[in-house]
User: Fold this.
Amino acid sequence: MLAGGLVLGVGAAITLAAWTDQEWAKGVFGSGGAFGIEGSADGTTFGEHATEAAAATLNFGLDADNLAPNEAVYASFAVQLISTSTNQADVTVSQIDTAALAGTTASYVYTTSATCNATTYAAGTNENGTTFSLAAVTTPQYLCFKVAAGSIIQPNATGTVVWTFDAESADAI
Assistant:
């Protein structure tokens, strides 16, 4: 009887094994397209300036290294999506002026062209606005930067202001 139960138990185990099954599925994913921004100090020649050490040098004009009290200098910068970008961008602007020339202030506005002077600065919008969007690869956002000397600045001194543009991908183009 014990031997019969053993045979029955093995038969049941075999029967259970015959009724099991598995099914598997998997998906393979990867990121497509490209994303990035680039900048231009002249509004036409764009390139990537991915680190502070490789930052684009803005052209503030002849008087930028010879400021006198109550003077201001201006420079333009354009930011656009790289030509292969497949997504729009939300861009955050940061201004680092801890090494600025003592007695000066730096600010910026958004404009519609690469022209940047006192007139276009006055007509600009969203002074020191920290965000903007890029929606197409051929449509740059122009910024007009102003560095103004106060009534008291140190003679024969220098300083630096750095602006960063941090882009985050948004909707597909």
